[in-house]
Design a protein that fits this description.
This protein is an all-beta fold. It contains 3 helices and 52 strands. It is globular and about 95 Å long.
Amino acid sequence: MPLTKLQFKPGINRETTSYANEGGWWSSEKIRFRFGVPEKIGGWIKNTANSFLGTCRALHSWVALDGTVRTGVGTHLKYYIKEGSDYNDITPLRTTTAAGAITFAATNGSSVLTVTNSSHGAVQNDFVTYSGAVSLGGNITADVLNQEYQIVSIINSSSYTITAKDTSGATVTANASDTGNGGASVVGAYQINVGLDTTVFGTGWGAGTWGRGGWGSAATLTAPSDILRIWTHDNFGEDLIFNVLDGGIYYFDTSTDGTLYSRATELSQVAGADSTTPTIAKQVLVSDVDRHVLIFGCDPEDNIGTQDPLLIRFSNQEDVLTWTSTATNTAGSLRLGSGSTIECAIETRQQTLVFTDVSMHVLQYLGPPFTFGIQMVSENTTIMGPIAAVALEDQVYWMGQGAFYVYSGRVTELPCTVKSYVFNDINLDQKEKIFAATNSEFNEVWWFYPSAAASEIDRYVIFNYAENVWYYGTLVRTAWQDKGISNFPLAAGGQYLYDQERGLDDGSVSPSAAIVSYIESSQMDMGEGDNFAFIKRLIPDVTFDGSTGSAPSVDFTIKTRNFPGGNYLQSTASAVTRSATVPVEQFTDQIHLRLRGRSFALRVDSDDLQTKWRLGAPRLDIRQDGRR
């Protein structure tokens, strides 16, 4: 009997039934398609030398003039610059008190200290650093007090609590001698308010009524500490400009701040900044071609401190500190006429795309006297969240509310074969967390998103733009940066960064664990499904090229069933699993089977360490048969 070659259409298709998708793939985990065939994705290694506080949702690397590679890491608690293995805390300060404005009170036998500071403006989990304090008289020494603390709870507008600790971080308990108040010289340096790690329904991105207020009026927006903490950042030369969504705009000067890693400074307070420098924004970026700083959803020249969510301002060319527009400079502003708020902006090689809640615009550099011009290119365009879009050369890909899109001169919906799978099982209450990323080595755009039952990201969906196919899997990542400055894609998960596509295993644990990967086909039958098939032999076709283990293997499973809606037959006579454990580039010659069914499916999976596998075109010895 001639052998039947199993050649499947590339990509996963969940837009039809498994039975109707004959000749295609139905489900997958930790695989990608390359040259039309599936293979296991690369592994990852955790950077364990140090960790950071909070959940990271923003990464940006750049190179200083001295060749130093730095990476901005924005979390819901802090902002760091990573250099080498060190995370340097440059979180800006919100305020510094006068000496004596702060006092402490301790209770015998308790580690809880009550801090009194009139109109402190802090929220729970904020960070404050004390200096100038003296001992309370017992265990609560000056060294215990004069360090950074995270606020445990807010009592009222003038007091809060912290947990006493020594310089190693161990809890310290007050004794009966701790009756002092810290002295008359205590100073508190409060860092900017922390943001949320989980979106609170009814606040945050996209909240409020469309067209709130009169046309052209400024919006009343939720405080930055009450919405999901999202940072945007870009480098201005070797320096860094960054901001928090609907919050302040900050500047890190590499030549001065980078020496000892002092805290970043509010842009409007940098020496030389003019009086109309924006103080609040939704997003910042630097226009690479013409060297203007662009600030979106910011305060206007004539009303500093009041945010206009549709306003775009740009600095004088090559000048981050000049914002007052005059006849002799190129600073200025534009205001969008569609929508109620700017959601995000994405820069391509030649232009910048600006999304509002209902439209999309193209911002282009024109030169003097207008500097920039803006044109609407699409109405009724949605975007899932402020970080759900990514640029790839002159194309922009994004996840909308119920579909995927690409802009390459015009807006086009991407045909998606896993659309229902994604949008029928997604947590829209946490849509702000959804982010887009590129993995250019494999021609992929990734979207990470939370499933319906999850409050944090636990899944991804991939569009391979070179092969025009889709696939998906599960992975907890909260930020991603493509390779370029770094040798591997850089991703955040938990309180660590990961080198993605490095190695073959799950390096989040020690020792590394195997990555469980699989792909399963849709059902196949003989003819129109009116005949039973008998499968007697499988000739596998799989390569282990790139594996580093001594005996890499995968499991081939042939599953049969009699009706499209029935269960797969699980008796030993109706289903079989075989393992092909062979050296790299060699194959098991054949596997003898005895399977009967009206239809069958193929599954290939692996859970071995140091294994890389790639499927070819297996053959089956199959013939028509009766039921016995």
